């Protein structure tokens, strides 16, 4: 049975990181970077935590707060809340079980001392030169601009898909490693894992611990993956333009470039907590941007539907942002605009790349199955095998991450909303 705090209790906390909030100097960010759990407390709460951790009884700290800060605080309830988030180590000498599993960060040998140079001035200058050289090259050689035809670099559809999947997997690995290295360069732990976003199978890096660093440094973590993608595309184009590596390697590099470009376009889906979503989260300084933005979007949709079809669509009700501050209301509305713009960009990417690739692949596979010989039939089977394996991996990942919700879903009850891991990828 877990210990409960009383007014005579003495509380000890686990090691925690504390800093003044970037959003409000009257608030403090308190958390455990190793498990990715953070909360914000007012100055009185921070003073109470420090006083309690010094060994004072809850009753004595309450009296001290009343005298020094003119604040009446129920610290027993406050401590119970801190127990729930795993901050309390013991009460009256009785150890409190840690609710979080002890997970080691991936690649722990990466530290700020051996990764910081990747984000220094010299590295930034090198990235700028790489991008500038690519832009100049594409003006001179527009035929090197990645196009959907580059995806199909050979005559066998299944083989192309298999090899491109391997190339894309390597690119995704580098993308996520970039997030991990960026987090580690700031002294924050991180872990890479599979996850799902709607119907997409994704690889993500849990970088929740970056809440322990200032906001202006967090952008490094969020944008490092896209910078890596851009470097891969630029590198592939420049090698093909100047190194002339041979026909097969040239086609494979072009295929790599187009697959990475398509993945970069997907980052515009800011309603799926992509890298750019977390950039917006910090730029707009809105803690619950996703859910608030979704509620506002639903309100707008219902309001528009009611105006067009008043007999079919009911009245929209109260604006969910009505009680927000002017800053928060502006942030939510800007996010709604970003969702529309981002979806438009992603849709344009699908029309330019995804749709033609799918149409070409389906037609080619149909021709092969219709009498293309043994090799063509085997190749079509390879295509089915690769796509089937990806779908199985999606289902396994979805089950592992959501199995605690499945019984409630199957039982017909709607699950309570749960928070998402702060990952980027």
Describe it for me?
- The chain has helices spanning 43-53, 58-68, 75-84, 112-115, 121-140, 157-185, 215-243, 247-266, 275-284, 289-308, 326-369, 373-402, 406-410, and strands spanning 11-13, 17-20, 27-32, 37-42, 88-91, 94-95, 191-197, 200-206, 423-424.
- The protein is mainly α and 425 residues long.
- The chain folds into 2 domains: 11-95; 112-287 and 335-424, no CATH class.
- Helix 1 (43-53) crosses helix 2 (58-68), helix 5 (121-140) crosses helix 7 and helix 6 (157-185) crosses helix 8 (247-266).
- It is elongated, with a radius of gyration of 26 Å.
- The two termini are 40 Å apart.
- The model is unreliable at 408-425 (pLDDT under 50).
Question: In short, what is this structure?
Answer:
With 425 residues, the chain is mostly helical.
| Count of beta strands | 9
The string of secondary-structure elements, in order, is: EEEEHHHEEHHHEEHHHHHHHE
Beta percentage is: 5-15%
Alpha-carbon Rg, integer: 26 Å
Spatial strand arrangement across the major sheet: 1-5-6
Average pLDDT value? 83
Number of domains: 2
The parts where pLDDT drops under 50 for at least 5 residues are 408-425
Give the biggest beta sheet: 3 strands, antiparallel
Shape: elongated
Q: Estimate the helix proportion, in percent.
A: 55-70%
Continuous helix count: 13
Classify the secondary structure makeup into a structural class: mainly alpha
Distance between the termini: 40 Å
Transmembrane segments: 122-139, 151-174, 221-242, 248-266, 334-355, 375-398
Protein name: PqqD family peptide modification chaperone
Keywords: Membrane, Transmembrane, Transmembrane helix
Organism: Micromonospora terminaliae
